[in-house]
Amino acid sequence: MTDYEIYKKTTLLPIKEIAAKLNLREKDISLYGDDKAKIKINEKNLPDKNSKLILVTSTSPTPYGEGKTTLSIGINDALCALNKKSVVVLREPSLGPVFGTKGGATGGGMSQVAPMDDINLHFTGDIHAVTSANNLLCAIIDNHIFRKEEPLLDKDTISINRCLDVNDRALRDVFLPIVERADAFSISVASEIMAILCLAEDIEDLKERLGNIFIGYSLDKKEVYAKDLKAEGAMTVLLKDAIYPNLVQTLEKNPAIIHGGPFANIAHGCNSVMATKLGLKLADYVITEAGFGSDMGALKFFDIKCRKANIYPDAVVINTTVKSLVYNGEGFLEKGIQNLNYHIQNMQGFTNHILVVLNQFEKDTEEEILFIQNHCKSCNVAFEISTCYTKGSAGGMKIAEKLVEMTQQKTTPTAFIYQETDTLQDKINSICKQKYHASAVILERKAEEKLAILEQSKHAILPICIAKTPYSISDQPKRLGYPKDFTMTVTDIKLNSGAGFITVYMGDVMTMPGLAKHANYEKMDLIDNQPLGLF
Q1: How confident is the model over 339-348, as pLDDT tens digits?
Q2: For the whole model, what pTM was predicted?
Q3: Quick one: which of 46, 253, 517, 530 is 20 to 30 A from 468 by CA?
Q4: Which residues face 532 on adjacent strands?
Q5: Please, what is the end-to-end C-alpha distance for the chain in angstroms?
Q6: How far is CA 454 from CA 157, 193, 199, 209, 210, in A?
């Protein structure tokens, strides 16, 4: 059966009953039908718990993904089967991958969150709200330019792009004749407003961050922010419901919180701070994931989310597959295992509580599995096999037991990669040389000029968010495995003062993907009011 068919054969509990499992009352939630709800309470009003936070990351992926979300859901279900109070906290799927190549982000097989069709499509409208708020700001900016209002904007310095939650390469470069300036569309989950939604602590913090969005320079070379155009109030109105985390359930009828969806190759790739902190107040175990490999989402989880939210995981799960390691070894597992080596070493820089989990597929041989297991043993890290896709919680019991044991002793937070007082150049070098093992970092002229300006500004204390290909540890997508002796090239730099980080673009990374020649949309249809072809 397909993922969708498995989901449709499952009888879901009313969302009120799922809420009760987290001790949420009816007045704490706002219903979106019988199977979805917004959690409308502030975690700051809940008592602290000695909860365990478990981060799920991955080795470098293939273009089709390696089942990290499926594993996260399976671990949560297994913990619940062990009578542990657990919740999985995930990102919301973007329509780009849903209609593109990778597909949705609701797990697969017996380890899914539901209703998978709603979650993968419009869900509760959060991403649409982000899109509307972003494009409202862009409209306000262009209206300001058109009417020649003070402060007079230098239209060549506008740094906010319009966005759309669909892969559309034709929108990468556009021209706006009315205001005579170039613009470009990003995919909505790459917008700064999505990052702001995911890093805001509450609605007041959200409004302040929206006002602090840097939009460009005035003609007299002064920084201009969204609040200077009186835009933050209207944007907050559009995001007034999107700020609240969403409650759904797994196929095994366990709680799942889903909120926010920043891309990990462009933004910081983690679900919202509000959702994670809420999970830590409502459950004893929180399973969360960070997008793509540990060089992308997990590194940013530690460097940006943990730094800003004052949280730290008690254990890290590194998800891998035989397929991804063979892919990274250009057809050879023995060569591709070095990619796993990198991700183990990367995470050992943050914690000694590491569990490597192999998502097992039917074609995996005993020899391949034993080879990976022995390699983990030589690296002094724990290893388990997941069959959560085919067996649900039963396929993740040993993983859950191992994590319960591993998290009995809280891990000691390590020092961050760099200090806030370091120069921006030193911060970039620290990430690229210490974490990616690049031999050199060079800046193209445009990036160098922007960096020089930021170095002398109040924004120099902000952390760095690297935007690069997710398919290689380097900034070159075809350099697979564990590349050595390579140079990383900074092509652009963008100040995200509302979100609170500086994005450093490396290589040919794009903020608006395109559709493949034969993408998932070709398989989709609506038959008897049922959407088919989703996965």
Answers
A1: 999 999 999 9
A2: 0.97
A3: 517
A4: 525
A5: 11
A6: 14, 21, 22, 19, 20
